[in-house]
Design brief:
This protein has a six-stranded parallel β-sheet with strand order 2-1-3-4-5-11. By secondary structure, it is α/β, with parallel strands linked by helices. Helix 1 packs across helix 2, helix 2 crosses helix 3 and helix 7 packs parallel to helix 8. It has eleven helices and twelve strands. The chain starts with 6 loop residues before the first helix and ends in a 7-residue tail after the last strand. About 40% of the residues lie in helices and about 15% in strands. Keywords: DNA-binding, Transcription, Transcription regulation. It holds the Pfam family Peripla_BP_3.
Length: about 325
């Protein structure tokens, strides 16, 4: 029988104190980043059982959002998600804090300032950044994202994309474009998959230029404006757009207002997320409703129950308003 690796063994191999190893493995402050990573690397090489660190009850959770998100535009969605997590944390007596990070940050140091027992990551994170977070060996759950081997909770993005596109087809639209900021994000790719499924079932084939992916500019909103203008310059512009989220759909509304394109007469429009502003826009926006607070509550449940490799999908609902010509 293999003898379990002890903290003392790791300390001797690294030439540091037992206390330093304990702080590194528990993600506590007080160590240089290179020292922390070296200790964790040695622990992994020696086969240390990191699950032994998780016997304590989770008392502090850190909610992480990627700095790449335009925070002001992302908050209408993610603030509701955060409130759902906060509600669930209060019920469990857990303290919740927030941090936005990017790949250029000293990730471990920034995270450890909060001294969390567990992490919830929301929205897009590139694999390299997720890898850095996983190296910290803290329980981790993803929301609005998927990665192999990590527990996650998502709205049913594929079904949402399907419902949005099917609705536009039922309104008699035949030139339906899909507007995205990027196809790098799991959720957006899944929404496009649903869009394709609905077109396939209706035996509609869209030209490739109707896949309107915003050019990689620093300002996401300006890049979306460029993508929409490119659609409208086509010899046969679309008569409908399914936008990957409501914020992007509202960019379409502004461009249409500037160019005297009437919604829904000239262009039917559907968004995704059902943020509060969707109902106030002009005309009110047809969208796919996501229970954002429930996403947050389910994320905390997965964290506390230590569910592994589970992609929990929450149902979505089509909300029909004036922008699609109801």
């Amino acid at each position: 029988m293999t003898k379990p690796v002890r903290i003392r063994d790791i300390a001797e191999a690294c030439g540091v104190s037992v206390g330093a190893v304990s702080r590194a493995l528990k993600g506590q402050p007080g160590l240089r980043e290179d020292t922390r990573l070296r200790i964790i690397s040695v622990a992994q090489q020696q086969g240390y059982d990191f699950s032994r660190l998780r016997t304590d009850k989770i008392k502090r959770v850190l909610f992480l959002l990627h700095r790449q998100h335009n925070i002001s535009r992302a908050l209408p969605f993610y603030s509701q998600l955060l409130l759902g997590i906060d509600d669930a944390c209060r019920d469990q007596g857990i303290a919740l804090s927030f941090l936005s990070i990017g790949p250029g940050d000293a990730v471990s140091e920034q995270v450890m300032l909060h001294q969390p027992d567990a992490l919830i990551c929301a929205g897009f994170f590139e694999p390299e950044l997720l890898g850095l977070l996983q190296q910290m060996k803290l329980p981790l759950v993803l929301v609005d994202l998927w990665a192999p081997g990590l527990p996650c909770v998502n709205p049913d993005n594929t079904q949402g994309g399907y419902l949005a596109t099917k609705h536009l087809i039922e309104q008699g639209r035949s030139r339906i474009a899909f507007l995205a900021s990027s196809l790098a994000h799991y959720s957006i790719r899944q929404r496009e998959k649903g869009y394709r499924q609905a077109l396939y079932e209706a035996r509609l084939l869209m030209p490739p230029e109707y896949d309107a992916v915003a050019p990689p500019l620093l300002d996401t909103e300006q890049s979306l404006v460029e993508a929409v203008n490119e659609l409208f310059r086509l010899p046969e512009p679309p008569d409908a757009i399914f936008a990957y989220n409501d914020a992007a759909a509202m960019v379409v509304q502004r461009v249409c207002a500037q160019q005297d394109i009437r919604i829904p007469e000239d262009l039917a429009l559907v968004g995704f997320d059902d943020i509060d502003a969707a109902a106030w826009s002009h005309p009110p926006l047809t969208t796919i409703a996501v229970d954002k607070k429930q996403l947050g509550r389910e994320a905390l449940r997965l964290l506390l129950e230590e569910k592994l490799e589970e992609n929990l999908l929450l149902p979505v609902q089509l909300v029909v308003r004036g922008s699609s010509g109801k």
